[in-house]
Amino acid sequence: MARILLAEDDDSLRGFLVKALERAGHEVVDFGDGDTAWHALQNAAYDLLLTDIVMPGLDGVELAKRGAEIDPAMKVMFITGFAAVALNPANHAPSKARVLSKPFHLRDLVSEVDRLCMAA
Q1: Quick check: 63 and 37 in contact, CB under 8 A?
Q2: Among 7, 44, 45, 104, who pairs with 51 as Cys (CB 3.0-4.6 Å)?
Q3: Rounded to the nearest 5°, which phi and psi values hold at 7?
Q4: Per-domain residue ranges for the chain?
Q5: Is the backbone of residue 113 left (phi > 0), alpha (psi -120 to 50) or beta?
Q6: Is 20 left (phi over 0), alpha (psi -120 to 50) or beta?
Q7: Distances from the Cα of 58 to the Cα of 32, 37, 109, 113, 119, angstroms
Q8: 30 pLDDT band (50/70/90 cuts)?
Q9: Predicted TM-score (pTM) of this structure
Q10: Contact 59/36 with Cβ under 8 angstroms?
Q11: What is the pLDDT of residues 40-99, one digit of tens each?
C-alpha cells in the first residue's frame, strides 16, 4: 500500500493511528514533533504525509509546505482539531491537502488514507 510519514505529538493517538494504518497494510514511520518529521522527509521518500497541525517545533502546515517543495507528488492529509487553520488560504498549505477533523473514528481515517493514496 502506501509509505506514510505520521507527525502527531499526542503519543497515545499516534500509537492508535500507527496500529490502524499498519493493520490496513500501510508502512508507517511516526514522529512526535514537526522538527524530527522534517528531518525524515529530507532523507526518505513517502507517499503520504499525515500530520497534526499544532505540534511542538515545526507546525504541520509548515511541515507540509516544506514537504511539498521536496516532493510535489507526495499527498498531504491534516488531522486536526483546528480545520479552519489548515483551510485558511493565508497559510499557503498545499492546495490538494485533505483535512480530517478530530475527533474521528480510526475506520474513517483508514478509509480517507486509502482513498487519497489510490487517487491518481
Answers
A1: yes
A2: 7
A3: -120, 110
A4: 3-118
A5: alpha
A6: alpha
A7: 11, 9, 23, 23, 28
A8: very high
A9: 0.89
A10: no
A11: 999 999 999 999 998 888 999 999 999 999 999 999 999 987 655 555 556 656 667 888
All residues at 6 or more sequence positions from 41 whose CB lies less than 8 Å from its CB, including other chains:
5, 49, 63, 66, 67, 70, 71
On whether the CB atoms of residues 52 and 6 are closer than 8 A, the answer is: no
Greatest C-alpha distance within the chain: 36
The single residue listed with the C-alpha cell 483551510 is 87
Neighbours of 17 (CB within 10 A): 23
First to last CA, the chain: 14
The length of the chain is 120
Residue linked to cell 505540534 = 55
**Distance from C-alpha of 41 to C-alpha of 36, rounded to nearest angstrom:** 9
C-alpha distances in Å from residue 96, one per residue of 12, 119, 120: 28, 11, 12
User: Which is nearest to 60 in space by CA: 50, 68, 70, 46?
Assistant: 50
